């Protein structure tokens, strides 16, 4: 099986603190990986490194086995929607599709699947949940071989969570989800890792992620 | 090349969608022009002589607002990351944005010049062609380093101060040459000097449109 | 020490031993021994900063980055000294503190252009970003120096010819040269001292701290 991510001993630090350290990770071409861990454990930093927006200070990272420009094949759904505030959802997707050389014909379908059809006002008027939906729409537009999703369920209502879950299941390639909401994210994934203070503390099947999460809290005396 | 045109089109499209802000920018430029006139006083001769200086200073002061906004739209909702991962070419991104900024500054100049004619009682002695050429070369000279510097300061605290601090010393040659050339175009050029000033503007534009294009890629990834 | 010694000796030789009648400009002209070496070494320091900035961008090594910081700072210091000396000389000679001469104006603009590099370095916390952005600003500011100079020269000119040993009376040559070398050594001393300080700080920031220990695996009951 070919791999999309091969990371060996990668680390990234901010000042004197290692946000991610000693991290080894291999993700297969169609694998769905869940990354869980408490606030500030390095999930977002890890996704930024994997997206190539951040460069690791240590270790080696190979994406898509070094065969192509990784940026052509991956997409990141970050905390910000990654769009222009002054344009509507449709206009944003059209502009991004043009710049990323993607087809614009799927835009109405994508907007419908995230529940943002009939929204012609600029993004600056959108609520937090709608912005997350738009962020997912941008990712769906790119149909990446590696999708990186940072907290896709944050600020979502139950209907939104259901729509997002369906959309994630329809993604074509490998998917890496960083989320606190284990109960929503775990069913979408096959494998899980638990990060704590920048390092991997546990890995196993996604079905056991919730148990691992609880074990960490017990160890810290929070439960 | 393709990317450049797409970015240009996109920036102008966003400006069009947010045109209420464009109107406030034009009002700002107009206000500065009027303030210069008040500061100098009702002296028709002085006003005519300094008309070009008012024009370019008002463009320069307004340009810091315009340049800052052109980079803020990329950053405020994370669009820049989407573009970088799309991936668009960084040279295309720079030249597209620099062209969009040049175009908007030219529109600003085009709107300010009629006001200058009215309040400063300037008369069109020489050809309007020289005036237009000066406006193009001058605004291009502000836009190239301005686009680079707005990318450098966009995420910094105190950028309102840092952007003009970086830009103003750098564009002294542009202001000197553009003011001289505009004065000659407006009030007549008996000594035939306008060519030298336009040459200086062309040299500045060539140096900074190429240099900033090279450096922009590093800045935007940092 | 050697630099200070040479400088003292040159000033002694220049100021005390030479015939006062050699000076067209009287006693105030003797500031030449301080002024001209300051100008030469100031420019040289900026050149070092430019080379260091290119090196820093190419390699991302902290040694180059520290050299940018050190040489820009010493360059701005010499530049400020230069302007003060120039004003002190200009008041009795030209009758004014300030004049719009190309070199004078260029050095005034350089103080701001390079001074803002120091401000930039202060306001960026992340070492990698600081290296990139301050290097870019240094490169752009340095390339602008000849353009500013040319533009102001065309704009207006009134100054002595460049002081090189050829334009100076023969009896002044030796002390002037010695003073220049004295200043050079002092400049090098300052840059090296400042580089050491910058290196110490950058090492604290940029050298990787120890990796945290590998954690013990979490036990999860089945």
Provide structural commentary.
The complex is a heterotrimer of chains A (223), B (222) and C (222). Chain A is 30% helix and 28% strand. Chain A has 223 residues and is α/β, with parallel strands linked by helices. In chain A, the strands form 2 sheets. A 6-stranded mixed sheet of chain A has the order 5-6-7-3-8-9, with helices on both faces. Chain A has a 3-stranded antiparallel sheet with strand order 2-1-4, covered by helices on one side. In chain A, helix 2 packs parallel to helix 4. Chain A is globular and about 50 Å long. Chain B is mainly alpha-helical. Chain B has one domain. Helix content of chain B is 86%, strand content 0%. Chain C is mainly α. Chain C has one domain. About 5% of the residues of chain C have low confidence. Chains A and B meet through strand 5, helix 2 and helix 4 of A and helix 1 and helix 4 of B.
What is the rounded Rg of chain A?
17 Å
| SSE string of chain B, helices as H and strands as E | HHHHHHHHH
Order of helices and strands of chain A: EEEHEEHHHEHEHEEH
β-strand percent of chain A reads 25-35%
Helical percent range of chain B?
over 70%
Give the proportion of residues in helices of chain A: 25-40%
CATH class of chain A: Alpha Beta
Any idea what the CATH architecture of chain A is? 3-Layer(aba) Sandwich
Global shape of chain A: globular
Ranges of chain B with pLDDT <50 over ≥5 residues? none
Number of separate domains of chain A:
1
The neighbouring-strand order within the major sheet of chain A is: 5-6-7-3-8-9
Major beta-sheet overview of chain B: none
The structure class of chain B reads mainly alpha
How is this structure best summarized?
The complex is a heterotrimer of chains A (223), B (222) and C (222). With 222 residues, chain B is mainly alpha-helical.
